[in-house]
Structure prediction request, 105 residues.
Amino acid sequence: KKKNFQNPKLLDLNMAPPKFGDIGKAVKDLFGDDFAYGSTKLTLKSKAANGVNFKVEGSKNNDDAAVSGLVETKYDHKSGVSFKEKWTTKNVVSTELSVKNQLAQ
Prediction:
């Protein structure tokens, strides 16, 4: 006589199958929460010998292939004057001039 070693509690036929959306939830959460798979980004920073800081940023949206970028320069003078300029791929140029500790010391 053969013995059946299956656990009857594991063979509950009244249990509903998992929802279709729950099957790949762990993998979807991994890519959606912890990994930016929908875009690619690149940032480069450098400092010239004369003290000018350069930053170049670029990004590409993989869904619609949109590409955007930014070039930023920043110069800090020893007198406390700071000059920053940004230029984007949307052809927007912004300039910022700031002075440290001149209002109140």
Observations:
- The mean pLDDT is 79.
- Residues 40 and 60 are 5 Å apart (CA to CA).
